[in-house]
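Sequence only, no structure available. Ideas?
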Amino acid sequence: MNDEYSIRELSAEQFEPPFARHVGAVFGGVHDYSLDDLLDDAERAQVERLGRRLGSPWTLRLGAFDHEDRFVGWTWGRQESRHAFYMINSGVLAEHRRRGVYTALIDRCVAAAFDQGFQLVYSRHCATNNAVIIPKLKAGFVISTMEIDDRHGVLVHLRRYANTDRHRIMDYRSGQRGPDERIRNLFGL
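Reply:
I predicted one. Tokens follow.
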């Protein structure tokens, strides 16, 4: 990413208005739905009650801005467990793509999550969304799961590990590499 763009961490109050204004431009043609649209009032109340039980997971909201301080992209996610951070949604407005903005958002998000102590950053993407999958693979993510989801269709899960041994173990588990000395010792081979 060049000096034409900057990335800043935003509060929920700073993030929500520009996100709401631009998310349709990035995802307008996607055929998914909101679970809330299916639920009746009682079910929505139950879901809200269950959500309150989860406490206050760490959340990260990043905004990308051009040199005129216009919001041009984002990524946001939250703590999923004591060791996993879920990158929930990212987008870059069409006229700002292929300029390194998405890669910079990935790098900043992963660095922030690892700085917090998370051992794993993961995301889920439409299986044919190469514009997102390829930069994530280049950033050190690996494919870990395929999923068929009622809301989003066929998804690929990508993971990035803080611990390089875990990445090598994924290569071993997938058949990409044989076990090295560390893996042999770890698995008692």
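The chain has six helices and seven strands.
Hope that gets you unstuck.
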